[in-house]
Amino acid sequence: GRAKTPVELTALEEAFRRFAVHGDTRATGRDLHGKNWSKLCKDCGVIDGKSITLTDVDIVFSKVKNKSSRTITYNQFREALSELASGGDLQDGGREVAHISGVTVRATRAVASPTVSRLTDTTKFTGSHKERFDETGRGKGKAGRVDLVDKSGYVSGYKHAGTYEKKVQPKPQQKPM
Questions:
Q1: Which processes are annotated in GO (biological process) (predicted)?
Q2: C-alpha distances in Å from residue 157, one per residue of 27, 32, 152
Q3: What is the pLDDT of residues 125-137, one digit of tens each?
Q4: Residue (of 48, 35, 39) closest to 15 by Cα position
Q5: Residue 38 burial by Cβ neighbours in a 10 Å radius (0-12, 13-18, 19+)
Q6: In this structure, what is the dihedral angle of CA atoms 24, 29, 34, 39, given to the nearest 10 degrees?
Q7: For every residue of the chain, which 3-state class applies, written as one string?
Q8: For 153-169, b where at least 16 C-beta lie within 10 A, e where not — what string?
Q9: How far apart are CA 110 and CA 96, in angstroms?
Q10: 139 pairs with which residues across the strands?
Q11: Contact 42, 96 (CB under 8 A)
Q12: Partners of residue 33 on adjacent β-strands
């Protein structure tokens, strides 16, 4: 058979999917939560604080979503954008749609500084913090955070631990001559 050609997404659909999966590892990209809808509107400059506020965005989201749902689909997303464009007294509703389609979700990059590198250098850790990492600097996980209780019955540090059974074993009897 022939290989299927992937469906081409418009820039607006691509932006919808990026924001739909943002911050949620289990998201499929088909539904957009209210939190991500608000983030999309903030990041794209739709919320200007004057004609469109965060409250307006939340009201539009509640208006277009299904009553029992917490998410909106792509068609409801388009409806919400047109609702914002017409109800928000915007001169050019298409301008916001085009602006949204060009947005990419960016991750914050960590700043490399001597202070941060000194604070995160596990070789300089002391005390209980040192016990949380192995020789390579990787965390030990739960084993590094939890004191594992020794249930052997011996005091910790006792050098003859485990020798009791050898001491109390009955000695083999010698045969009389």
A1: microtubule bundle formation; microtubule polymerization; positive regulation of protein polymerization
A2: 51, 58, 12
A3: 888 777 788 878 7
A4: 39
A5: middle
A6: 80
A7: CCCCCCCCCCHHHHHHHHHHHCCCCCCCCCCEEHHHHHHHHHHCCCCCCCCCCHHHHHHHHHHHCCCCCCEECHHHHHHHHHHHHHHCCCCCHHHHHHHHHCCCCCCCCCCCCHHHHHHCCHHHCCHHHHCCECCCCCECCHHHHCCCCCCCCCCCCCCCCCCHHHHHCCCCCCCCC
A8: eeeeeeeeeeeeeeeee
A9: 31
A10: 133
A11: no
A12: 71
Structure tokens at 173: 């009897």
Residue 62 tokens read as 């509640």
Please count the other Cβ atoms lying within 10 Å of the Cβ belonging to residue 76.
20
Tokens of 26: 């289990």
State both tokens at 13.
């659909």
What value does the mean pLDDT of the chain take? 75
**pLDDT of residue 93 exceeding 80:** no
